[in-house]
Amino acid sequence: LRLKIAVVVGSARKGSINQTYAEALEKLAGEGMVFDYLPVGELPLYNMDLEADMPTVLGDIKARIQAADGVLFVSPEHNRSVTALMKNTLDWCSRASGGNAWAGKRAAVCGASPGARGADLSQMHFRQIAVVLNLEILPQPEVYVHVKDGLFTEAGDFASERDASFQKRFLDRFADWVATA
Ligand code: FNR
């Protein structure tokens, strides 16, 4: 069984550590999952007026969420909350044609930060938002990655066996969560 996972990375910048982290997870997941990175950076800033003439990328993103077995959110924290990109994505896909694309979807959240607390508060806000979206987030483990030099190898894998095995257990729990929906 190969699970199809739609992936939202909450930072669109070149060199994003969260993009690197997502790709490290993709490699750890191996044959068990196929990651589909959603082009959320292409969505305009949400404005209800734009719903009259929907951005085509929105339909594309919503269809890819629909087609996925589960959704993985990998995001940094901005000012102790979700990034604007994350909130914009959540808002757009909760609206307009086809309705709320998140409803009943099984998902997981994780994130990386150079801060010691590894983006923990943003994930608490994220979990609060997920309630109204009816987005079913894996309760445990909570995954707060504190990024320091040497966390990833040059090839973008987790350098330590300890980190790799924790992240692999997270992916296994996520796979079970998605498969039992
Ligand atoms: C940050 N950063 C940050 N880090 C953190 O741990 N807690 C926070 O509240 C914030 N707040 C914050 C606000 C803004 C506007 C920026 C630009 C940055 C630092 C952040 O974790 C760091 O820039 C990461 O490298 C962002 O992740 P990406 O873009 O590398 O994936």
Describe this structure in words.
It is a single chain. With 181 residues, the chain is an alpha/beta fold. The chain contains 5 helices and 6 strands; from the N terminus they run E-H-E-H-E-H-E-H-E-E-H. Strands 1, 2, 3, 4, 5 and 6 form a 6-stranded parallel β-sheet that branches. It starts with a strand and ends with a helix. It has a single domain, classed as Flavodoxin domain (Rossmann fold, 3-Layer(aba) Sandwich). The longest helix has 19 residues. The site of ligand FNR has 14 residues, from helix 1. Ligand FNR binds next to helix 1. InterPro entries: Flavoprotein-like_sf, FMN_Rdtase-like_dom, NAD(P)H-dep_reductase. It comes from Brevundimonas terrae. This is NAD(P)H-dependent oxidoreductase. Pfam families: FMN_red (PF03358).
Question: In terms of topology, how is this protein built?
Answer:
Blueprint lengths: L2 E7 L7 H13 L3 E5 L18 H12 L2 E5 L9 H10 L12 E8 L6 H14 L2 E2 L6 E3 L14 H19 L2
Parallel strand pairs: 1-2, 1-3, 3-4, 4-5, 4-6
CATH hierarchy: architecture: 3-Layer(aba) Sandwich
Give the bound compounds. Answer: ligand FNR
Structural class by SSE content: alpha/beta
Count of runs of 4 or more consecutive helical residues: 5
- Report the uncertain regions: none
Taking the alpha carbons of the first and last residues, their distance comes to 15 Å
Order of helices and strands: EHEHEHEHEEH
Number of DSSP E strands: 6
How would the global form be characterised?
globular
Domain NADPH-dependent FMN reductase-like: 4-146
Organism: Brevundimonas terrae
Pfam families: FMN_red (PF03358)
InterPro entries: Flavoprotein-like_sf (IPR029039), FMN_Rdtase-like_dom (IPR005025), NAD(P)H-dep_reductase (IPR050712)
